[in-house]
Every structure is written in C-alpha cells, then in structure tokens.
Amino acid sequence: MKQGTLFLIAAVVVATALAALPAVASPFVQSMALTCLMFAGLAVSWSMFSGPTGYLSLASSAFFGLGAYCTAWGLAYLPWPVVVMAGGLAATLFAFLIGLVVLRLRGAYFAVITYGLGELVKHTITHVEKTYAGTVGRVMTDTPSSNVVYWTVLIIALLAVFTYVRFGRSRYGHALRGIGMDEERAATLGVNPMRVKLLGFCLSAWFAGALGAAIAVRWTYIDPNTVFNPFIVFQTVLISMVGGPLTIGGPLVGALVFSLLSEFLRLSLPYLYMILLGVLLIVSVLYLPNGLAGHDWRGTWQKFFKRKKADVQVTEQRHE
Amino acid sequence: MNLYLFIDLIVAGLVTGGIYAVVALGLNLQYGLMRIMNIAHGEFLMLGAYLTYTLVRYTGASPLWFILPMMVALFLLGLLLHRLIFRRLAATSPNAEVMEARSLIVGFGLMFIAQNAAQLTWGGGMSGQPYLDEAVKFGEVTVAANRLLVLGVAAAASLALVLLLKRTLLGKAVRGMLQAPLGAMLVGIDTRRLHPACFGLGLALAGLAGGLLSMVYELTPSMGEPYTISALIVITLGGLGNIPGAIAGAVLLGLVETFGTYYTSPSLKILISYSVLVLVLLLRPKGLFAK
Fold it and tell me: Phi/psi class of residue A95: alpha, beta or left (left: φ > 0; alpha: ψ in -120 to 50)?
C-alpha cells in the first residue's frame, strides 16, 4: 500500500512537470518530449499484451497507421477528441477482427502473421488511395496547435501507464500471465484463453491507434510509408525488450533512452544508427531476455565475482 | 488466350518459382531443424548478389565463376553466426516457441545490420550487371537466356539438395533430425556439428539465389525482403521440414504470382504475396500437403 502511494505521488509529480513543459521548454525540447511520450505510450501498450503472454505481436505499426489514417480522413469533419477516440477504436476493431483468427497461432507464426497483416493493410490503403483518391499521400489542414497535440499524447501515454498497472493487477492480468506461463494449464484452471487474449490484444491496440491518430497531425503530410513504417514497431519492441516488458519502468526508461538516441543519431548517421539498433537488439535478446529492468543483476554480479557461491544457482538448460 | 503468352507466363512463373525454391529450402532447413525463424534470410540473398556483382565488376569475368566461392564464403559466415548467436540462443531458450520468437528478433537485428551495412558499402542507388541477356528462340516463344540459366541452376541445386537428403548417410541424419530431434541425438547423430553446417548451408543457398538474381535484376540493399516473405509462404505451403513440399510450394507460388500480377497489376504483387501468406497461415497452418 505504501509503495502504491509513493508510486502515485511520483506519477502525479512527473505528470504535472510534463504537462507544464510547453510553457517553459523550447519548441525543440517539446518536440523531443513528444517523441519520447509517443514511444513510451507505444512500448507500454505493447507490453500490456505481449509482456505477460509472450505472444510477440508485430501489429503495432498497423494499429498506429490505422489511427493516423482515421485522422487524415476525419479531421476535416469531426472535432479533435472524437478523431483521436475514433483512431483508437478503429485499431481496436481491427485487432478484434484479426485477433479472432491470429490469436490461435503461436510462436513465430503469430509474429509473422501480425507483421504480414500490417503490411497487407499498408499496401491495401496504398492501392485504395491510388485508385480512388488519385494520390498516395494526404495533406492535413486545420491541424490543432502543437500544444494540444502534446497534451493529447501525454494524456494517452499516462492513460496507458495507468491501464497497464490496473490491468496487470486485475484478474485478467493474472489470467494473461497464466497464459504466458502455460496456456493449457491456464485453460484447465478455468481461464478462457481466447477471450482473455482478445481483451488484452484489443486493449493494447486502442492505445497504439489513438497515439497514431494524435501524432499524425505532427507530419501535416502523411502517406502509408510514413505511418505504417515497420521501424515504428521495431523501435517499440526494442524499447520494451531492452527495458523489460514485465515492468512498467522498463519501457518508460527504454523509451527515453532510445528516443534521445534516435533523435540525435538518426539524422546525422542514419545507417550507423540502424546497425547499432540491430546489434542492441541481438545483444539484448541473447543476454537480457527479461530486459534491463527484469534482469537478475544480483545473480550476474555473483556469477562474475563470487563464482564459488554461484555454482549452485546456475541452472541453464541446454537445448541443442 | 494466346498460347505463346501462356507459355511465356509459365516460363516466367517457373523462373520465379525456381528462385523461391532455392531460398525456401535453406530457410526450411534452418527453421525445421533448429527453430530459427531467420527473417534475415533474404538479406543473405542480397549479400550474395552484391558479392557476385562486386567480383564481376572488378574482374570482368563471368559471374558463374564466382558463385561457388561466394557460397563458400556465406557458408563460413553461417558457421560464424551460429557460433556467435544461435548456439547460445538455443542453449538459453526454455522451449521451441521461445526459441522461435527470440530468433525472430535476432533475425530483425541481423536484417538491420546487413541492409544498412550494404547501404554504407555499396550505396543506395540501383546497380545491375546483366549477364547473357540475349533472347533465345524456341519456335515462336522467346526467352531471355539468363532466365533459362537461372531456372536451370536453381532446378539443379534443388535436385542436388533432394538427392543429398534422400541418398546419402548425411542426408539421412538430417532427415532424422527433422523428424525427431531427440531421437536423432539418441541414435548418435552429432547435432552439435550438423546444426551449424545446416545453418551455413541455408545461407549458401540464399547466396546462390542472390548470385543468380544479380545476372537478371537490379540490386538494392532491401531486395531480399520480398524473398524472405516468399520463402515463409513457401515453407508454410509445403509444410515444415518437408523438402519436396517446399519445392512444389515454390513453383506454385511462382506461378500464382506471375499469373496474378499479369491479370491484375504489377503494383499488386506484394499484396498478392501477403494475401497468400495470410490465407495459408489461417486456413492450412500445417501446409497444403499435410494429412
């Protein structure tokens, strides 16, 4: 309980500081904070479902892009909050429809099909726009001010963190973790795996869609290659995996580090940045399977410096 | 429909299918044997293509001379990658599903590294080195000679691999590992040596496909991606670890794509591939030929 209060106070302080940022910071800092918040929200929403279940979803780009296209199509006719909500709901609807079938698959097939569906959506939208609208991209006019966009993204990111914590503690959160450990056992113990997975998948999709809808106006001109960019999902997965998808702090710190890194390196050394990203991805999978935050640092310490004591604790299974 | 057009399309489909077969056989070995979902498989095709292209550029000799050395180089690269990455990955993964998911992430990492390293080394501009691009006439049907060459080499390589697996003791060991990994170890098959070799063989096959493609098409650092997707479709169509199934699946996909893009529009090629992938995964996740 005490820890909960502490967390709440810290969250309120951070949220207030972030909300006041536009008043004090330069546009450059604000823009960087916006990128940070976007990836923090995406990483937390990804971890909501993929963290506990271990289902590696690569659909974030599809959710994000669907949200962005909702804004592109609806911004001229609907008020801003409705557009953002609709972006999230479009992603949720998409997640529900594909979830009904793809959540039956596991392991690499699940990852591959979620990626494939994302690409399918991207190419479908490209084709539809080319055929019916005559152009591939869309220019957005009458966009809300950058402060409104910033606050919207901040609210969605905070909502994602709040939902992550509450959802993780609810019976559905426990059920999802149970599915991650052993799906058959969870089913035997009375969990309906399909329903719980679908709920988690849809919930996580809403945030990615809403973030896409809110961020889209930042670009003023969008096309399928920008908003369905696979880079978005890779960066999201990397942030969560390196940070630690089973903790709330992991994705948040990961988002901060990688957003700053990408902001500085991507423009000056784009190819080197991607190579670095690749190396980090491999190293984190090999040596930090639970992420920085979830890693057993004490165990590593003991392994390196107190070999004799640690001998008993090293229980690596060999599968070759 | 015009008979000659029909034959043209069949030949084009077979050429595409032949390349798919070579690429998919390598991925099928890696995935079927070691559960390595190597999403960077197409990147090794790209590396093979660029290596061949560079060697041809510097020496001016026929690309056919360099195919074999380039395959050996990629085989060695495969041994190295297996030693550095996948051995540890297999040793620390609690089960096959975790292994698949983690190898997929590693694959994306390798993809970033390979594509961007190629971009830094060779630049982003398209480059091509057409070889033997004269037409060969069979009565009324004309086919480019290099495409026939690609088809011939791809078919020969696929056939050689099938014979290797069916007729030799080594092949028997590999088939044993495909059918029952634990049983194979129990009867004394040395998986610690065969696994890296099969991983390297997969890379060498991707490199072969790349070397062949460098005679026909232009090269870009991201040219490998569509082939990875095609290879995934093919091994899903054919069934995991099913080598003849993969060859049949490759030819089928090559024909479906060729006819599909001819009757709709070339810009729909990727859409068609992804639709086939999604449909196959949903309707026949165990492959078309599963009982």
Answer: alpha
Look at residue B1 in the predicted model and tell me its pLDDT: 64
Query: Given this model, what pLDDT does residue A317 score?
Result: 46
Instruction: Look at residue A92 in the predicted model and tell me its pLDDT.
Output: 96
* CA dihedral for A163, A164, A167, A172, sign (positive or negative): positive
Burial B208-234 (b: 16+ CB within 10 A, else e): bbbbbbbbbbebbbebbbebbbbbbbb
Q: Residue B63's pLDDT band (boundaries 50, 70, 90)?
A: confident
Q: What percent of chain A has pLDDT over 90?
A: 29
Please determine, for residue A303, whether its predicted confidence score (pLDDT) is greater than 80.
Answer: no
- The answer on pLDDT for A218 being more than 90 is no
Given this model, what pLDDT does residue A2 score?
64
For residue A104, what are its two tokens? 């039956």
Residue (of B231, B24, B34, B224) closest to B114 by Cα position: B224
Give the model's confidence band at A87: pLDDT under 50 very low, under 70 low, under 90 confident, else very high.
very high
Of B100, B195, B275, the CB nearest to A120: B275
Minimal C-alpha gap between B220 and chain A (Å): 15
Q: How far A315 CA sits from the closest chain B CA (Å)?
A: 10
Q: Does residue B207 register a pLDDT over 60?
A: yes
Nearest-Cα distance to chain A for B214, in Å, is: 23
Q: Report yes or no: B240 at the A interface, CB cutoff 8 Å.
A: no
Q: A278–B277: do the CB atoms touch at under 8 Å?
A: no
Q: With beta carbons under 8 A apart, name residues in chain A contacting B91.
A: 316-320
Quick check: A212 and A65 in contact, CB under 8 A?
Answer: yes
Lowest mean pLDDT across A7-16, A185-194, B36-45? A7-16
Q: Which stretch of A124-128, A132-136, B18-22, B118-122 has the lowest confidence by average pLDDT? A: A132-136
Return the axis-axis angle of helices A27-53 and A230-243, rounded to nearest 10°. Answer: 70
pLDDT of residue A159: 93
Q: pLDDT tens across A163-207, in order?
A: 998 998 899 999 999 998 888 898 898 889 999 999 999 999 999
Q: Which residues of B touch A94 (CB under 8 A)?
A: none
B279 shares contact with chain A (CB less than 8 Å) = no
Nearest residue in A to B100, CA atom: A108
B85 touches chain A (CB under 8 A): yes
Average pLDDT rounded to a whole number, residues A204-221? 92
Chain-chain contact of A317 with B285 (C-beta, under 8 angstroms): no
Which residues in chain B are closer than 8 Å to A124, comparing Cβ atoms? 271
CB-based burial, A47-71: b 16+ in 10 Å, e otherwise? bbbbbbbbbbbbbbbbbbbbbbbbb
Nearest CA in chain A to B31: A108
Q: Identify residues of A whose CB sits under 8 angstroms from chain B CBs.
A: 54, 56, 101-102, 105-109, 111-113, 116-117, 119-120, 123-124, 127, 130, 234, 237, 241, 270-272, 274-275, 277-282, 285-286, 289, 316-320
Query: Between chains, do A54 and B98 touch, taking CB under 8 Å as contact?
Result: yes
